[in-house]
Amino acid sequence: MVLATTRWALERRVKASVSDDSVVPSGCPTHCLFVPSSLRSQVIKWGHCSRLACHPGVTRTIFLVGQRFWWPTMTSDIRAFVSSCPACASAKVPRRPPAGLLRPLPVPSRPWSHIAVDFITGLPNSRGFSVILTIVDRFSKLAHAVPLQKLPTAKELAEVMSRNVFRLHGLPANIVSDRGPQFVAEFWKEFCKLLGITLSLSSGFHPQTNGQVERYNQDLETTLRAMCAKSPGTWARQLPWAEYAHNSLVNNSGFSPFQAAYGYQPPLFPHQEEVASTSGPAAFVRRCQRTWRRFRASLLRNQERFTAVANRRRSAAPEYKVGDKVWLSSSDIPLKGGSRKLHPRFLGPFTITKVVNPVAVRLDLPSTLKVHPVFHVSKLKPVRESCLQTTDLEPPPPR
Length: 399
Prior knowledge:
This protein has 399 residues and is an alpha/beta fold.
């Protein structure tokens, strides 16, 4: 009854605003009231935001409003109103492919010049170890898995990397990682700066940036799960063999990581040793260089194919610029209120303060949100504005 009374009051205002001698534009259905511009926002708000409507999409809002009201630009006005509705923007998930076409990292030209690092945590205790540091050479895909007692501090990480990577393969030009506390610590940044190593950190809540080591982590966990099914606490004993298997088996490039890095396949049986060691130093260098050229060409072909396939399920990101306002996905943001079931799907709006690259931007976040302000565009959606829409929405309090 309250809803009906609201509509009747709205009808009376519409009728009162149109005098008897007013000219109604042609095209107005006989059962509809022509709505002047001064009342269109109220009419759309009734047809979209009232409890009778409950924030439907554009088509349903047009249907509800069109049952009693009409004006020439009704369809476009309703579309603009609904697309700029803060309640809808914060509550609804877009029904379209994620924004941001794949931008793969450049393919290195030699082994161990560019590496990626990460941790595997949550493992059962095995010989005093509960964490694995994984390091992947982005060129050859050769990997090392180092068992650790716990997550290291930045200083401990520097020692582990020096002992297990730098002394074996030299200093890399670049290290890709997520934004774990070890990798954003000032000690780690200064340590790498002194060694001439640049750091590439992933954008907020977007592990795909470090996809190569994330994929290795998945494969390593699967291998250990299979090898330690009956005794999970023995994973530390099996870890060297899991690493060896990954590095010696041929992948979709046609090479094993070991062969891509060193120019020959590791001998598995004693009779292969003589074949593997007959060439002289010059021939060995030429073989390595030849292998690297072939392998890099294979990487580029695979990358091109993978990018084309991946982008079929993505959409081009809007061309954001500084000052634009966006909604931020709440999927990875800690919020107050217990269950996330009825939490808003997007927070904001927030203002873009810097365009880091075509698929990452920095946002002006309130101090209550304790997260890094750089986000991939797949976590954002642009704010739509309409002169008919004046409602503001406050984000829920963070935890």
